[in-house]
Amino acid sequence: MTTIHPSLVSILALVVLTAIMPCRAEFTVVLPDSSGLVDRPQNGFSNFARTDPAEQRAVYEIMAATGNAWATAIPDVCRGRWHGIECMPDRNYVYHVVSLSFGALSDDTAFPTCDPAHATLSPALLHLPYLRSLFFYRCFSGDHPQPIPAFLGGLSPSLRSLILRENGHVGPIPTELGNLTSLRVLDLHGNQLSSSIPPSLQWLTRLQSLDLSYNKLTGPIPDLRNPTLNVLDLSHNFLHGQIPATFGQCDSLIKIDLSRNRLIGSIPDSLSNLKSLILLDLSHNSLSGPLPSSLGKLISLRALLLNGNYMSSATIPEDGFAGLKELIALVLSNMGLQGPIPESIGELPSLRVLHLDGNKFNGSIPQSFRRLEKLSELSLNNNRLSGPIPFSKEMLWRIGRKLRVYNNSGLCYDASNGRSEGIDSMSGISYCETETKRVVVGAASARISGYQTKHLSSRTDRGPPSRLSSYAPTHRSGILRLLVPFTGFLLSVLPLL
């Protein structure tokens, strides 16, 4: 498993934190009149209030099946206001179970515990007709992995959220889950599910978040046309085939993560219809070029990660990304891209992270990069660039050791931008000699390869380093950190579902 340089963490987290706030309303679910429940807290019970006895017995059975020793110690599962059990009354003051959550997310989360060595999913779940949210976390991850039972497809028609995270579930995703037509959130992250994604998930026309990441799923991605879908995460599987063009019909999408699969073919132009898309991560697949200029129509995009798709001989369209005025992170590392770096990349006013390393770019660094006033990380190493580095000494101080330009054929620092003792100390970025000779980056960095790590390890992140780092970052764990705010956000709104 590869790791990423930790410097991407704060920038990529900002991508989501600055973007999800306007989307909060998208996840609010209005309770239908047909539920027969009154939307009010479960405290303030009157003397006449009571919990439905059949549902109370069902909760006891469910808790016993999870290995919870104190299940029957709860005299009334609703009136006790127990963590992980939420209830709502009907108009006759009869309280019904609407949410169950099992498994400890942290030391501060006192949900009912599970015994992974013995826990099972009980069919008593079918006796909770008002259930809207079901959550199990690390409850069934013992020595005997269990499949997801098909009977879950018969859960309450009111179910909005089904989350079975990191439970060690094996086998296929049950086709019967397509019967849960009120579902807004389906999260099966971090199990060992195999086989293909069932086409029946297309029937979930109200689905807002689908997370099947970190499993062992195979086969093609089914055509998804869910008009309400906001979040799609199928990363870290073994999916193959092409990216469905029908994704362009899911015009509510704000996040697509298909990274770490075996996808082939080109990036479909239909993705340009996704005007609300904030994150697009297609990294580490086998996608082929050319890079579509239509990506420049994703006007809300904050992060674009295509690294690890070897698009031999592909180039970046001159104005292909010009419309991405909100873009914060652009990662195009190790893609076999060639030709000059377009000047238009320097016209992206929000850009903070730019990784173009491990390609075959030639020519000079665009002068327009001087105008990237928010840039805090730049990787141009392992290319074929030459000529003067156009950055001012102020910009070099701002980026500091997060500037990586080693292993290029002829880069040097233009002394006309101002000389300083700090710049002189940067071995690997030497001044251009206009009359007789110039010392190039490639030669200098070869001489310091065994020396630089020691000097960098004692430095802070600001100011020019005494030795130019040869550390070439990878990107996946930064992507994971980027996704955490999405996951936390979805979990925070589950009570609303």
UniProtKB/TrEMBL annotation:
At the top level, the lineage of the source is Eukaryota
What SMART domains does its record include? LRR_TYP
Give the signal peptide as a residue range, or say none if absent.
Answer: 1-25
Q: What is its main location?
A: membrane
The reply on keyword Cell membrane is yes
Location in the cell reads: Cell membrane
Concerning InterPro entries, the annotation shows: Leu-rich_rpt, Leu-rich_rpt_typical-subtyp, LRR_dom_sf, StomDev_PlantInt_Reg
GO terms under cellular component: plasma membrane
Give the protein name, as stated in the record: Protein TOO MANY MOUTHS
The species this protein was found in:
Cocos nucifera
